[in-house]
Recover the amino acids of this structure.
């Protein structure tokens, strides 16, 4: 048989150690060494995502501009028809909701990354390597939170451009941004869980079908008081609404007021909901990951 | 060229004394040992008392029909799956007790090329090198060395998604070789590749073995096992049904075979009659190829007798060939009338991704199981 053009050496020099045994790097044998391994591995995997951005800037830019497009659509196309309860500018009302929406869209990013790796066998390759077990997840988590930070920065710039601002000081504003990231952190576990449970990245459409009602059935675009009673109740208790309501409060942006429990305790709920979601989906995601070896 | 199989640069041999609790067993020259492996999915056994012993530095072929348990076995041996019962030692370490030690010493090539599609070849290998805890400089050097060795040095910054199937597989193999593993698992390394890419992968496997690595290979193509493996284990229904060298397995069928190809369809009956009379057995007739085959004992005498017999009968033979039985024939004989794997693979594209329990024990055609293969590939 003729040799392929990209000829490979038919013989290779023997390994340096006798008996064909290569001595690999020693495994960590102390708690500190294990932590160091976990940190290095997590960073390597975070860098992997950063390299994806560098290689596919178009994909990143499109994902970042999508919420901007929604702001323009709702802020200018529909915004003229919107009455903010208690008066105020609709775009000031809209922006906190759009920050939160950006966090919700993040589920799709997490889901796509996790399910692609699982379907392509990359997750299995990682599992067959001496990687710190937590690194795959921590790397994903760090990369996605970084992605959300960039997304928030773009939205802040967009908000300033359409006349939005915070009015009660930087400290309270930072608190609101913290709540957004907390929400994103909680949704991360839903994304990882669904990504491991799904057959492959093709199921992304199904995730979008789940994500959109979560985003729109909230106080992001309209006041729940204007909706039919049952729908308004769902929108009011939507975890997203809690974060949005709390952020409006912290930014000093016009809100929809309301006198319900959910409306009066928005900040508490904006902390409680993500914690609850994490408490449910973190163990589910871990269990799903461990079940890969069953 | 620098030492390509050997230790990556910058890695100094560790001191085995500092890891006494995890010292490998001194199990002589055995690289893989599995005893009494059992694994069931939802009550359906996928492995049912599977044994395997692979001497160090050899290539071992694992053959079996779809759903026989090959992939399940490889996944257990490579620490991806926990066995329900049984003992596994790979590179001297117990897989269940010291998976991390085993992972340091194995390479795995799954059924899908599991590399990052967005990154280029160099970025992939550097990333995997870092994940094997090579220092950055060593990871870079090792990546460059492996790209060169696998003929991928000129791919530049092209993302892997733009690679051909063969290139992707070679990169996959390079990634699995970063630590110069003692044991390499190849799960159908050439399924879905064109003949040229297949040859490239075979070359890579041969050079791997030349460097002292032990290889366990599952394959759909018996020809592949015949070419690469020194010993073969045939699995069916999660159990070993035969093992030995390819030649020894072929010898089980006994004797050699003579194939005759005739020029005209009309000559088939006459030629068949001649062959059956002279060999004393029923002939296998492939009407489409106009080929008739019979087993024979006395090789040269049978050949001359058949040639003379055909001439007497006035049959024009296009081809008369004396040959050893193929591994396909051995396989058909061992596993009954079930589809030989090579045909199944052709029919299904990429079959046997799963060894799913529901498939085990049934003789369903490979095509029917393909739809599920992707989903189950990572269960």
């Amino acid at each position: 048989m003729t040799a392929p053009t990209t000829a490979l050496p038919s013989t290779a020099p023997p390994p340096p150690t006798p008996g064909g045994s290569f001595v690999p790097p020693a495994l960590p044998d102390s708690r500190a060494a294990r932590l160091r391994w976990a940190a290095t591995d997590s960073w390597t995997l975070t860098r992997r995502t950063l390299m994806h951005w560098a290689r596919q800037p178009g994909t990143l830019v499109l994902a970042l501009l999508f919420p901007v497009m929604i702001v323009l659509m709702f802020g200018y196309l529909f915004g003229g028809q919107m009455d903010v309860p208690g008066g105020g500018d609709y775009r000031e009302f809209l922006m906190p909701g759009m920050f939160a929406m950006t966090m919700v869209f993040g589920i799709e990013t997490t889901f796509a990354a996790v399910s692609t790796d699982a379907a392509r066998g990359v997750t299995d390759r990682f599992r067959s390597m001496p990687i710190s077990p937590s690194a795959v997840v921590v790397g994903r988590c760090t990369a996605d939170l970084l992605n959300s930070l960039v997304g928030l920065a773009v939205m802040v710039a967009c908000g300033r451009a359409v006349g939005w601002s915070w009015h009660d000081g930087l400290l309270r504003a930072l608190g609101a941004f913290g709540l957004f990231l907390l929400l994103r952190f909680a949704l991360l576990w839903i994304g990882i869980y669904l990504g491991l449970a799904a057959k492959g990245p093709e199921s992304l459409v199904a995730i979008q079908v789940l994500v959109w009602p979560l985003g729109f059935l909230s106080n992001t675009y309209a006041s729940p008081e204007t909706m039919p009673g049952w729908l308004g109740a769902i929108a009011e208790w939507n975890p997203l609404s809690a974060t949005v309501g709390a952020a409006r409060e912290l930014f000093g942006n016009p809100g929809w007021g309301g006198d319900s429990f959910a409306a009066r305790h928005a900040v508490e709920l904006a902390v409680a909901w993500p914690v609850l979601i994490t408490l449910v989906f973190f163990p589910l995601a871990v269990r799903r990951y461990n079940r890969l070896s069953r | 060229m620098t030492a390509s199989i050997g230790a990556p640069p910058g890695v100094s041999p560790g001191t085995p004394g500092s890891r006494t609790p995890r010292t490998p067993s001194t199990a002589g020259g055995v690289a893989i040992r599995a005893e009494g492996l059992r694994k069931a999915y939802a009550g359906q056994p996928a492995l049912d008392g599977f044994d395997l012993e692979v001497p160090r530095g050899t290539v071992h072929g694992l053959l079996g029909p779809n759903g026989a348990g090959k992939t399940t076995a490889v996944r257990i041996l490579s620490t991806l799956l926990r066995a329900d019962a049984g003992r596994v030692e790979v590179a001297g370490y117990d897989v269940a007790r010291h998976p991390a030690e085993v992972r340091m010493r194995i390479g795995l090539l799954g059924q899908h090329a599991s590399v990052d599609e967005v990154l280029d070849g160099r970025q992939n290998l550097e990333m995997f090198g870092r994940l094997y805890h090579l220092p950055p400089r060593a990871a870079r050097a090792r990546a460059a060395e492996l790209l060169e060795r696998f003929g991928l040095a000129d791919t530049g910054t092209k993302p892997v998604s733009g690679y051909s199937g063969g290139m992707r597989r070679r990169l996959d193999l390079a990634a699995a070789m970063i630590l110069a593993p003692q044991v390499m698992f190849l799960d159908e390394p050439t399924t879905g590749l064109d003949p040229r890419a297949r040859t490239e992968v075979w070359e890579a496997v041969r050079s791997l073995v030349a460097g002292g690595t032990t290889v366990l290979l599952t394959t759909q193509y018996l020809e592949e096992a015949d070419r690469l493996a020194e010993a073969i284990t045939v699995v069916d229904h999660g159990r070993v049904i035969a093992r030995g060298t390819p030649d020894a397995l072929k010898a089980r069928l006994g004797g050699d075979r003579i194939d005759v190809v005739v020029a005209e369809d009309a000559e088939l009956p006459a030629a068949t009659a001649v062959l059956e009379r002279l060999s004393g057995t029923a002939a296998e007739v492939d009407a489409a190829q106009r080929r008739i085959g019979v087993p024979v004992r006395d090789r040269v005498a049978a050949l001359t007798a058949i040639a003379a017999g055909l001439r007497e009968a006035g049959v024009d033979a296009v081809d008369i060939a004396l040959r050893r039985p193929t591994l396909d024939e051995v396989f058909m004989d061992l596993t009954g009338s079930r589809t030989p794997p090579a045909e199944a693979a052709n029919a299904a594209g990429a079959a046997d991704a799963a060894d799913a329990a529901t498939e085990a024990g049934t003789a369903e055609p490979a095509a029917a199981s393909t739809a599920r293969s992707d989903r189950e590939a990572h269960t």
Chain B has two domains: 24-249, 255-324. Chain B touches chain A through 73 residues (CB under 8 Å).
